[in-house]
Design a protein that fits this description.
about 45% strand, 2 helices, about 30% helix, alpha+beta, 4 strands, 4-stranded antiparallel beta sheet
């Protein structure tokens, strides 16, 4: 899935008979949330202002992350989501 805030790739198995999950998800945050902020302003200026403020506060964190990997397991009714890897962005100056 390509989104405004992140790109997400998932793979694994979902057993609908046993109602069990065994999946991996990789999330790659998008650095620019400009479109999301603009959309929020169009929908509701107050929400747009809140999204803009949050994007400014969280930008330093997102700018340091290149991808996050999760394992999703357990039952369909109560899945468990565990962070497996948080890979920092490679410094281009290195």
């Amino acid at each position: 899935m390509d989104g405004l805030a992140a790109d997400i790739a998932m793979s694994g198995q979902v057993d609908l008979v046993k109602r069990r999950l065994d999946m991996q998800a990789v999330v790659a945050p998008e650095i620019s949330a400009t479109v999301g902020v603009a959309t929020a302003f169009v929908i509701n200026p107050i929400v747009g202002a809140a999204v803009f403020a949050a994007s400014k506060v969280l930008a330093p964190l997102w700018n340091k992350i290149s991808l996050i990997r999760y394992h999703i397991g357990g039952s369909l009714d109560q899945p468990t989501i565990n962070e497996v890897l948080r890979k920092p962005k490679e410094d281009k100056a290195s």
